Amino acid sequence: MNQQKRILAVDDEPHMRRLLEISLRQAGYQPIVAENGQEALRILRDDNVDLVVSDLHMPVMDGLKLLEAMRTENIEIPIIIVTAQGEIASAVQAMKLGASDYILRPFDLETLEIGISRALSITRLKLENQFLRDEANQSGKSLTSKGLIGESPGICKVHHAISQVAAEKVTVMITGETGTGKELVARAIHQQSPRKNSLFVAVNCAAIPSEMLESELFGHERGAFTGAVKERVGKFELADGGTLFLDEITEMPISLQAKLLRALQEGTIERLGSNRPLSVDIRVLAATNRDPMHAIKEGKLREDLYYRLNVFRIDLPPLRDRLSDIEILASHFLKKRNISIDDNAIRMLQSYSWPGNVRELENVLERAAIVCGGHTIHVQHLPADIHSNNDIHHSLKSKMPEAAQHTASLSLPDAVQSLEMQMITEALNQANDNKSRAAKLLNISERTLWYKLSRYNLTNH
Question: Which end of the chain, N or C, is less packed with Cβ atoms under 10 Å?
Answer without folding.
Answer: C
